[in-house]
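INFO  loader      accepted 1 record
INFO  loader      residues=417
INFO  predictor   begin
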Amino acid sequence: MKKYFYLPTLLLLAACSAEAPVDTITPQLPTRVHTPRYDLELSTNEQGMASANNTFAFNLFQQVKQTESKHNIVLSPLSVSYVLSMTANGAVGTTLNEIKSALGFDAYSLDDINAFYQKLTDYLTTVDGETFVGIANSIWLNKGFKVLPEFTQVNQEYYLGEVQEVDMSKTATLRKINQWVNDKTFGCIPDLLSDIDPATRMMLINTLYFDGLWRTQFGNPKDETFTNEDGSKSVVKMLVAPERSYRYTVADGIRMIELPYGNATYSMVIMLPEEETDLHTIPDKFTQPNWKAWMEGSKGTLLNLTLPTFNINYERTLNQDVQALGIYELFSSSGADLSNISVSKPLFASKIFQKAYIKLDQYGTTATAATAETLFTDPGIIERPVPIDFFVNRPFYYIIKENSTQSILFIGCIGEL
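INFO  predictor   done
INFO  writer      dumping tokens
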């Protein structure tokens, strides 16, 4: 008969969500108010970390897409990077170096990293009064598990991490943690956990919630045909907006359009591969240099837009994905060095898990925003341009970003509706 020995484990969780369901939920979203847009000023170091965050986002998405059998994906790399950065404050030696390297933060100290996330959080959650962004972090400690005060203090100071002591063996703890996530995601993720391993000594949880209204509203959706990745066809509700100006570019076999929200701090980038392009080759083109060039190359263009509405739930255990990006020791019961969290040994990560939800309709979606002032046609043009058709009736990719730093909050794809 096999014997099983439970070792203390660290569970890292990241939950992210989009617009709330139509059902009444508690707590309620804040009242939307118009606020003027302003850009986030970043130091040279902070610019480097913002760029590294996007590189991590693309690397993680590429890894997930290569091994995912599902056609529809919504992923928040930013939520994962929050959890890993919080964990880094308790890591030592190779374990710390691997986390920093995967995130692209080799050149920066923990003080630099913590201050960057504090600054980013302050900006993302306050910059647009018409778009609600909520970022929350929590640390759940098993009763009697001793954690070094420096670890909780730094995560409370820089990440506003809520620290709670619970009994991981009690069913009430499962309900309590799920209720916390439910509240922070306004009912979109009511059951992040299905159970808790009795060996769990600690959980780190991040939630990232975004609710934005389109800067220019759409009318009621109409039935149109969407061709799925397997060649089958579906009749779906689509938004139709004839002759509007959007930021638009074509590069590397991809047509890209930006849809602004709120005060134009955030936008969604719809990325439609050309019909003859192999869908599976597209993620390989998602790199930070390409992303920078694509966004700088986009310009106001008159388009006839047809865009499907969708509502997607997604979940994934990310252990193998972050290991593929170079984080190995964190998951090793014998090799992980998290001695800046606790003197109790061994302590290692057993699971990194994310649930996500996104909804797009005529009112809004999980979104980032583009600068509205740049969306209009150059007034120096005398002849009226002929609108270009942008008909999203086949599989596509999407990115939700903040525009002054180009930071990626969400990335995903729709292959089947």
